[in-house]
């Protein structure tokens, strides 16, 4: 694996992280080298499966982190390739030509984070939400509690407790 | 005066048959429940369902045929009743059977089917049409063994008049068609399974596949009419089979018992067997039961 | 020994010419040769016709001083075949002329006289 | 009387004069030519008139003042007068037709043309062998000279081949003449004939040479390549001369000479003619080039005439009728066709669509084609008919069969051609050239055809001129075709009623005929009423509608088989044109025509083999007990092609479905009954109950049952509404066949009930569906849907129609089913019966599909503004519904008297049905239609009232307010469940509807075309090969003879 | 992305109009133009009506008894509660003996069981199904999610209170309630019906505007006429 990283380092300038599990590795590449990188991984290194494409919102840094989780079925190894992209008016190159099902992940990211993938099929159609006209709900500037309170008629008198504290208080009030 | 008496007996008979149909449905469902170790519904549940459906307050309609469909359907059921002699030897309980013979009844079964088909079609629901198309397709195959059986007993008794067929079977169980012509009886009983719409021939109404099939859009009074028909039809078809193959009935008790057991046969098979797909059921009906029916005729030709 | 009569020889010769012509017509490829074969055939027929009317020791059926009209029945050969031949020769001439005209035109149009080449019309 | 020698004088003189005249006086020269021809026409016409009206004997004209055998003599008899009239007329017309070409080719051409006409005149009239030779040579030379006018390689090579072949043939002829003279000492035909008892070896050879060369002159198949090439290349005007004028001369010479050869030669000519007729028509099947096709056809017709010639000893006194009829038809028609080809100038038959620019010419083209195919009312119909009958009387069944097969081959290309002219799109750049000088000959010959037909119909024994009235009516309507449609429609209705009222007294006592008459006339009226909805002129519809109905009524009225067949063909003709009017009908109409003709020929063959063939044609003879099984089978098959029994059904769906909306009910509800009527006549003929054809009837019964099953199954899998109904018709006719095949009283009652019912509901359904199709513009059911709101009347009538169709009580369809059950039980055909009942349940499938897919379910966007169908469609539907109701309520009104009629001694004496009041009962069961209807009606009304009361407040909702798994439907198109509705059924029983019959007939079609195409290859195009063929043919015939 | 809520429902609905519901023009068979407005042409846009109970007390009581003893439940499961329904019909609990039966079509059903949390998307379907049921119709809501949002109380996509959208007859508390509790709920519903208090359908019709505005507030692509007949 380290050899692989070495090779990739030369070609794509990636930075590897120490493995979390014996068969799970992560690395980071430049956003503009990503497609070339994972194409290489898919075609030459045996990472033929795209398991996951997901995003993390680093609002403090003004970045989105996209993780492309690839799997090599021969060696039973997972490799997460990360990139960081700007948070505002962001868009990323689509990879639906490498894996057809990537389009679905991208559709979801577009709906939930507002990350655009130009050219990805049906990327603008609603995926889970119907008729959503607010900012994408998974962005961290979206205040879901406030939205729910404004929209869904919260029942007055409802208390929200930490279950552990609440049960402890209720069952063992003396302690 | 005579006609008034006739009408009175006919109406009375209809009421008895309807009530017996409802009770029989309750009993059968009770038996099914007990067989699967449940308490099950109360025997009066069919009545309650019927009352409830007639007491639904709001209704919708899709058009004229939406009304005519259930009416055709119920006319089909009641019509078969009207042309069916119920009790052998009784002028009063023979209804209007002087107007036509077995052929009339066999063809009048289509009347109700047509009504159902048209009404369901007017509903505009694709599942209704799918159900109807399956039902009609399966019905063609169901009719085939029955036709063979009818021809076989027509050869046997040299008549197509139900009254005379019943008359020929009097004098004990050894004279029943069941004993004298078992193959025809078997073919007809298989066909009875299909006519009752129980498993394995219940793909028409299959709730899991196409929500309840033809009557998807029916509700309230419309559904009540259909349920009324169902109660009548089940009994009266059992009576038809009883008349043809099981010696008919000389009194009401006999009629009730025999129709119960004939109907229970279909339920019994339905409990045991899984459901056929529609093309499977057609293929099957066109093979073994048809062969049995053909044998039933061949035996009489030899 | 029974020698063949002049009439028989003429007829045999005519028939042979006829056959020869026929043979030529169906074997030669050159149109001109076919036409020549046809004239052979025609000549053969004429000879046959003449020989049909030939009677030994008789003269030509021309009524003049040498042959008064009253003696024609005894002295002249049958005049009818001769008349036929005369007409047939005329007709054969006409046909030969027409054939040659066709051959000429065909040659002008195509530069060839091979009959096998003129089969654009068929089926 | 003018001496006919002046014909020769006039023609020859004018030829010389025009040859001598200078170029600038060409107008005068051509007038001179016309004058000479007119003179000839007049002379021959006066002679003909004298022969016909004064009955004078044939005149002998002696030249040179000496008696034969020493001089040439001519004869002017009836035949000669007729032929010279025809020749001179054709010459005049041809001259006019060719006048433009002649003006290009120069005076010489006119001269040659006149010489040609003159020579043929002489050839016809002369009685001298050598003279014959001379003038036929003159004619040949003139002919070749005319061919020379086509100045290109093709023309020259064709002319050369022609010349060589003709020379060889004439050499043979000359040789033969010489030897004949050698043996008989005479050249006079009559003298030789008087010595024909002395035929010895060498005379026989001489005669062989003469006759074989005469036969070869007729361009017999397959040694006629030289002639075909000429046909293909020459100007069609000259082609018409070759075919009409020269061919006529050659034929007549053969006719004159044939007695020389004796009986053997008649046989030879018969066989040669047959081979020519069949073979030439066969190779023409795959021919597309018009001129060559016309050549094949000419040769074939000559072959037919040779058959007539060869059969002369057999047909005796009818010879002139036969040969005259065939000759006249082919002479007029073939000339006309050649002329038309010249006007169109398209090498391909497809180019003839341009004829539609001048409907008159299209009609004439139709005349010519029909005359060639032997359709009434043209003379050849009578000729062929008489020929077949006379051959049958002499037991020449193989000849008849060959003739009929050849005729069928002929019909294949003729009707393909006609269909293409009627239906194909007009090709770019083609125009009709119709100067008056070319138009009038075509018009004249076209008009002469029906006139000749009338004359020959009067000559034919056993023909009732009454039938011609309808033809005249149709022709009159054709002339009135510029009137608006409603006037013509009214005229047609009036004509139909008038004709029916004239016919009614003839059939009054015969209930069987009356029933069918009511179906035909009533159906005609109703469907014609629907025709009022058509705006505009509707050219070419009404004459053929009236022809079809006249044919149908004629069937009923026919007293003998000639009239029957005449009516049958009229009906076929009319319906063919009606069918081909549909948008995509070309191929379907061709199929229809071919199957109908095949059926008609089978009927002819069957007639020949039956009592009629041996004893006479009167239908009253039918009861005779002698009926060979093959005859019955052929007759039955013939009628079954009309009823479209399984295997013969493939023409029906397309033809009925693609026809116009109001034509479909005509051809489906009504026309098919003609076949049923034929079957009725046939089955009565073979002796009713006491028949001796049980095995055949058993087979027919199975066929009927299979047809019912197959038709219904195929109907269930159709997407096209009209095709569905058409297949349903197939099935219903299967029921009818099954019922009649019982040959029992109750079976026949069932058959009649079915016939009446099928007429009622199928006419009703086709009218209703046709109206809807008219409004929606599509046949496909899945494109419709939810139309109940738009066309409620049609929905009601369709509902009643399908209840009747399915045989559900209380409507009249059930009466048929009830009778069926009892008939099956009584007869003991249990398995066939079961199959029929199984088929009956399948009828539900398509009934439901029909009414649901069109009227129920989801309404489509583009059909939201569809209007109710025209009132003219509704009116007949309402009438039919009323009729169904009456028949349902009181079936006894018809069935009781019908039962009495059928119970006649020679029909079905055992009547098992007893009517007690309104209750019909057999030993097996009983049935009371009125009571059933009353009981069901009352019950229905009560229940409906109850439901209406209970649901009186129901909210009316719209089409998408359906339970859709908590979603809403996307579009009506995706929500309407209709396309391939019974796919599950297809999975189960689809193997039964594999298109076996279609594949079979397609295979037949392909094989025929391939074989015909291969057979054509013998025409290699090489002149020498043709000569070899000729000689080989001579040798073969010689070997066959000696 | 606009952060402002658009509070004009008409405008919002216009924005989310499905393509197949857009007005369009088709050409008829004779070439005539036909304008189709799917929402008006395909759907009935009547408002629901109030159906008063029968005047005759005895008849009404009898009818209510019949309705109560024959509860036909629509087979419609939301959330985790749908897994609690099948045991209800098993031999152990046997809801059939109370006259309860499952029906596959809302037209024939009289009871709608909301068996758990409702996402907005599911709510839309639940409302449509409810509206397609016929007039005496009853709603049973299971679990705390339907009462106050339960564990999804602050989710951006899950409703908190069902009774703002549908007239609920019986709430059965629990997360999830066990089948015994549901049986008890049926018992309570029966009591309510027999007492004539279960007039949810009429309530819905009377307060139709209120319910509808609540529904439309969160369901922005309604794409239907107001009442789904």
Characterise the protein shown here.
The complex is a heteropentamer of chains A (175), B (302), C (123), D (1042) and E (229). Chain A has a 5-stranded mixed beta sheet with strand order 1-2-5-4-3. Chain A is 29% helix and 21% strand. Chain A is α+β, with helices and mostly antiparallel strands and 175 residues long. In chain A, a hairpin with a 4-residue loop joins β3 (49-58) and β4 (63-72). Chain A has 5 helices and 5 strands. In chain B, 71% of the residues lie in helices and 1% in strands. Chain B is built from 11 helices and 1 strand. In chain B, α2 crosses α9 (220-245) and α4 packs antiparallel against α5 (126-157). Chain B starts with a helix and ends with a helix. The model of chain B has no long low-confidence stretch (mean pLDDT 90). Chain C has a single domain (6-56, 73-117), classed as Helix Hairpins, CATH 1.10.287.3510. In chain C, α1 packs antiparallel against α2 and α2 (31-53) runs antiparallel to α4 (79-110). The radius of gyration of chain C is 20 Å and the shape is elongated. Chain C starts with 5 loop residues before the first helix and ends in a 13-residue tail after the last helix. With 1042 residues, chain D is mostly helical. Among the domains of chain D are: 1-127; 219-461 and 998-1042, no CATH class. Chain D is 73% helix and 2% strand. Chain D has 41 helices and 6 strands. The longest helix of chain D is centred in the first third of the chain and has 32 residues, at 153-184. Chain D starts with a helix and ends with a helix. Chains B and D meet through β1, α3, α4, α5 and α9 of B and α32, α33, α34, β5 and α37 of D. β1 (60-61) of chain B pairs parallel with β6 (955-956) of chain D, so a sheet runs across the interface.
Largest sheet data of chain D: 3 strands, antiparallel
Oligomeric status of the shown chains? heteropentamer
Helix content of chain E: 25-40%
Largest interface: B-D, 82 and 78 residues
Distance, first to last CA of chain D: 47 Å
